[in-house]
Amino acid sequence: MILNPGPDAYTASPSLVLLPEQFPLLESLAFCVRENWIPILVGPAGSGKTRSLSVLAQMTKRRLHVLTLSSLSDTADLIGGFEQSNSIVKMLEVKSELLEIAEEQAVRGTWRGRHIEKTTELQQKFKDIARDQRVKEGKKCLKDFIEYLKTETEPDELTHSRLDSLASSVCSTSSKQGFTFEWVDSVLVRAAKRGEWVLLDHANRCAAAVLDRLNGLFEDGGVLAITEGGCSEQDCIVRPHKDFRIFLAMDPKNGELSDAMRYE
Fold this sequence. Notes:
alpha/beta; Rossmann fold; 2 domains; two-stranded antiparallel sheet; 10 helices
């Protein structure tokens, strides 16, 4: 379904404000979400494409990731790739996401404890842990904070799933120091596993061959096969969460979207 936000859907306020002009678009977007269709938001820059979708995500308590594509985008941007990493770097990434979850819970008013003290304590601990490369202590610190979030907040199903995923990531982190090259899933793949939303902005700027890499996700009961990571046949299949949704946005002055995407 192709949707046009119209020129009046944009608001310059940094906060997400629901405007009467957005009601028809939000209703259409909500219908697409319910039917698991892929809407294509068409309009010039500043017409409210991203903002309107952000409002809907906020209203439905969904996490929205915005991936801005260009003519330089390749498949690694959509599915992931090999990156140099070590245990401390991985744990710092987990820490950042845990702090983001903590902030979300505080905003929603579901935090029963004193979140400022706890988040400040976590940040201070990790300064020392990262400086001294204390991997085992870092893993224990993260596990304790994950359990604290589960008991002292009221996470919804998606947030609970994110916490479980982060806990698994911590457990799988090697206690050894040193750098290695390992496969890192893209934001889109992680969102597919967790049931989050992804907006592919400027989708018509991206090469058709790159977008076609996602065709498997758009079929009924579709999956995404990631063979580039060198994993086993079973592990390379990504089965999207039932709540995962993907959206496309484009400015018509930048050309047409690939036929495969328009008629998927």
